[in-house]
Amino acid sequence: MISVIVFDVFGTLVQIHRGRSPYKKLIKQLKTQGRNYMPDDAVSIMSLPFNFKQLANFWGYSLSDEILKELEIDLSFDLQNLVLYEDTIQIMARLKQASFKVAVCSNLAKPYGDKVFSMLPFLDEYIWSYEVGAIKPNPKVYEVVLEKLSCEAHEVLFIGDTLLADVCGPKAVGMSARLINRQGGQNLHDVLSDLF
Question: Cα angle at 122 between 119 and 123, to 5 degrees?
Answer without folding.
Answer: 100
